[in-house]
Amino acid sequence: MPVLWRRLLVFTLSLTPFALLVYRTATQQLGADPAKTIVLFTGEWTIYFLFTTLSVSPLVKLAKWRWLMVHRRMLGLFALFYALCHVAAYLTFILGLDLSRFFSEMVKRPYITAGMPAVLILIALGVTSTKGMMRRLGKNWVKLHRLVYLALALGWVHVLWQVRSSYFEAVIYGLITLTLLGMRIYWFCKRRSAHSKA
Questions:
Q1: Please, which residues have CB within 8 angstroms of residue 117's CB and are 6 or more apart in sequence?
Q2: Do residues 92 and 114 touch, judged by C-beta distance below 8 A?
Q3: Residues sharing a CB contact under 8 Å with residue 67, sequence separation 6 or more, in sequence order
Q4: Please, which pLDDT band fits residue 89 given cuts at 50, 70 and 90?
Q5: pLDDT-derived band of residue 188, with 50, 70 and 90 as boundaries?
Q6: Which residue ranges does the record assign to the Ferric oxidoreductase domain (predicted)?
Q7: Is 55 in contact with 8 (CB distance < 8 Å)?
Q8: Percent of the chain with pLDDT strictly greater than 70
Q9: pLDDT at 198 over 80
Q10: Buried-exposed string 57-87: b where 16+ CB fall within 10 A, e elsewhere
């Protein structure tokens, strides 16, 4: 399949959850607490796209799916898109755009304190994701974009600290996070060992 058609397919599939959310909102299918449903839905898809984005490199290394690399930036930008929708939904539907309440909520609900730095990291990565920024930042671009690992870890903590009853989903997210980060730590240590031997 040509790259352009793959891009269109990835874009369409990535936007499908948002289109579904709009449809469910328009047809009043969001349950008894629509505001909470929207916030949770956009939050879940943020972490799903972080998982997907960080799965690209392992799939390229292990499955030799090099064609995936060209789509990694778009997937990362969709993680940012759903994160911004998540924050906007929380500020609008939960807090009623009362920013003074936001700071008091951060004190009362530590999971917000974990989630906001993750969103700020994604914003920074999104702003610097262009080829022009890659040229300007040089080697620092790679260092900056490694912060996506911290964003994922903070995202998982954000989920974990919200758990009220079942930890099943948080444990699954934690295992995926551990796997994605553990693979990179293993490869990093392997490279260091190879360099030291050389």
A1: 150, 151, 154
A2: no
A3: 6
A4: very high
A5: confident
A6: 49-155
A7: no
A8: 99
A9: no
A10: beeeeeeeeeebeebbbbbbbbbbbbbbbbb
Q: How would you classify residue 97: left for phi > 0, otherwise alpha for psi between -120 and 50, otherwise beta? A: left
Tell me the C-alpha distance between 37 and 178, whole Å: 27
170-177 contact pairs (CB < 8 A, 24+): 173/47, 176/51, 177/51, 177/152, 177/153
Question: How many Å apart are CA 79 and CA 43, to the nearest integer?
Answer: 10
Read off the pLDDT of residues 121-166 as tens digits, 9 standing for 90 and up: 999 999 999 999 999 999 899 999 999 999 999 999 999 998 888 8
Q: Is 0.85 topped by the overall pTM?
A: yes
